[in-house]
Please model this.
Amino acid sequence: MTPQPNPQVGAAVKAADRAHVFHSWSAQELIDPLAVAGAEGSYFWDYDGKRYLDFTSGLVFTNIGYQHPKVVAAIQEQAATLTTFAPAFAVEARSEAARLIAERTPGDLDKIFFTNGGAEAVENATRMAKLHTGRPKVLSAYRSYHGATSAAINLTGDPRRWPNDSGAAGVVHFWAPFLYRSPFHSETEQQESERALQHLEDTIAFEGPGTIAAVILETIPGTAGIMTPPPGYLAGVRALCDRYGIVFVLDEVMAGFGRTGKWFAADHYDVTPDLITFAKGVNSGYVPLGGVAISGAVAETFARRPYPGGLTYSGHPLACAAAVATINVMEEEGIVDQAALIGETVIGPGLHELASRHPSIGEVRGTGVFWALELVRNRETREPLVPYNAAGADNAAMAAFGAAAKAGGLWPFINMNRTHVVPPCNITEGEAKEGLAVLDEALAVADEYVV
Model:
């Protein structure tokens, strides 16, 4: 894993990108994407030979790191055996992937509908809920991200929804618990849980319980800030859904497959939803794959009634072979337990130690390899380091922090006033400490903006 500089090739890659690739979420003339030459394990490098420790896991999907040889070999073997096949057939890789996933989902979520990614999983989960209940509305949290397809972006709570919001998608947003910035003026986790549940029940009552098909929540919200729910909240949501005949959907696209130190984040809370959406870590992002794990009750709705949805590449053999290999590797190498251990003994304590020295850190929160630092201008007032949805000069503090991290060889995950620490689940202790040391230096830059 010694990067070999080749700036001429890098320049050609960059030129072709700028000439022809249309990037997501970007003003095309204002971006300067890094040309990546290679990746392995927890690192990637550019064509100048500069190596970066990836504290983003791509987009929080390389749960077993880059280029794991067993998964690469499984993809190669599947390509030599059966490169692709239509979804209406029984294919070994597809069947085995579904079996392995169903073995790890909570409760009776034993049927697996495969998609190409997380947004399509959310699209289909909410469609299933509407058809199962015969109701039109779905409730979702303001602090959330569910994907960029039509239904998923309307369910999303963050500002990426605004230019895409149809205003007629049958979506109602509500406030989920977040004690640090409590919309309920709570002082304890118990108060936050109770008040958030009362707010949700009030929302259900005023929207009309008979009109609501589903409540969808990220078990632990990802891009929105990694806010672990307070004790009792998810169980309370489950009880509300049962009371009013509402389908409970947990979005585990980011939190699933070891990220939180459990196979699914729901396992931390002893809660079984009716549907779980997944993607990303299911095969470490090696080939696009997502899906919906479906309970017996919802599956029964479509036992003799056709489900009106499908995808040409549903359960693609290459993607499913990658999932089979990834899940087996995670079992063989104890990667889920490793994520829990590294979070408990290295990342969590390390981040709290940084918080004791850096006034720009308002709060540390997370579990496993799923952490966030809330960066603030003032700890007393909790004013964010940059304004909500800041851009340009308003975002100078976070831009300076990010530049310092990259200069130190760390690629950070930055969203608004937060940096997330989301490395691969199998990051070593030494690698994690290396990343924390670079964060320490970069946070000194953020401290310069504290008042």
The chain has a mean pLDDT of 97. Residues 335-357 form the longest helix (23 residues). Residues 128 and 307 are 8 Å apart (CA to CA).
